[in-house]
């Protein structure tokens, strides 16, 4: 029996270092995970607006002398500016200039992307090249498809100034027991009253004749367009399939898995293996 080769996600991301004795306290107050008490070497977390909207998906590498912040999805300039603005003169916190970091992790179709521990290389030296050349890397098209299947949010698509991390299936990146942080009040309120209005889903089209001239991103309950049940946020097209991500109103999720798009015709929706909801 032929062994199935593991596939890897390799991508470069913006990164900056946070140094100083107050670095952990500082990041704990503006991100959703528990930075103070975590024993993880890599912490996945979110940066929210004061009203709980997702602004960035972040990884924090915990090193001996500093923390490194990797922007998986978000506006690096906006993040660094905001972080710098809220450092008090008494805080022992210093942010470096952003730099690029190469991030590698194993992937599979059945486990969340958050299952595997990534490896990081700051410079593309000989060690990085030797390591990289041994791996079966996802090509750009397959990587984009895998990210869709994982429902990994993208800037200006799912991270659009409207969606919160609980709607985006990122519940495991929220620590509901830690102290105050940016957006905490909204997260607690949603959890305590279970008031999610929508959830992210993967959609797939079955149509071959697409109405590409139409700009209507809404998803409807039927072809008569009686009720709008959600809005498409991401689209992936290849020779063999058309699919993407959509935010579906929660009250219509029990109506069935088939809906209608004026552009893409009859579509099916499914949960992603990477999504965890309230």
What does this structure look like?
The protein folds into two domains: 7-150, Gyrase A, domain 2 (2-Layer Sandwich), CATH 3.30.1360.120; 197-278, Elongation Factor Tu (Ef-tu), domain 3 (Beta Barrel). Helices cover 16% and strands 32% of the residues. The chain is built from five helices and 13 strands. The protein has helices spanning 23-28, 76-85, 126-133, 140-150, 184-193; strands spanning 7-19, 42-48, 54-62, 66-73, 94-95, 99-107, 119-121, 198-205, 218-220, 228-237, 242-249, 258-261, 265-270. A hairpin with a 5-residue loop joins strand 2 and strand 3 (54-62). The longest helix is centred in the middle third of the chain and has 11 residues, at 140-150.
Could you give a quick summary of the protein structure above?
The protein has 2 domains: 7-150, 2-Layer Sandwich (Gyrase A, domain 2), CATH 3.30.1360.120; 197-278, Elongation Factor Tu (Ef-tu), domain 3.
Oligomer: single chain
- Total of helices: 5
CATH homologous superfamily of the largest domain - what is it?
Answer: Probable tRNA modification gtpase trme, domain 1
* Gross geometry: globular
Secondary-structure element string = EHEEEHEEEHHHEEEEEE
List its salient traits.
278 residues, alpha+beta, seven-stranded antiparallel beta sheet, 2 domains, Elongation Factor Tu (Ef-tu), domain 3, Gyrase A, domain 2
How is this fold's topology laid out?
Layout: E1 7-19, H1 23-28, E2 42-48, E3 54-62, E4 66-73, H2 76-85, E5 94-95, E6 99-107, E7 119-121, H3 126-133, H4 140-150, H5 184-193, E8 198-205, E9 218-220, E10 228-237, E11 242-249, E12 258-261, E13 265-270
Antiparallel strand pairs: 1-4, 1-5, 1-6, 2-3, 3-4, 6-7, 8-11, 8-13, 9-10, 9-12, 10-11, 12-13
